[in-house]
Amino acid sequence: MAHVSAAERRPQLIKAAIDLMTREGVAAGSTRAIAAELGV
Fold first, then answer.
1. pTM for this structure?
2. Which of 15, 19, 21, 31 has fewest C-beta within 10 Å?
3. Per the structure, how many domains does the chain have?
């Protein structure tokens, strides 16, 4: 996997968190679940 800068990764993480929590609820928003949603 290529290196992605923090400036590029941040909006990706935020979108993944919003998508996950919208679909599964806020309680599902663990760091592990968000990373899995993003595919990292």
1. 0.83
2. 31
3. 1
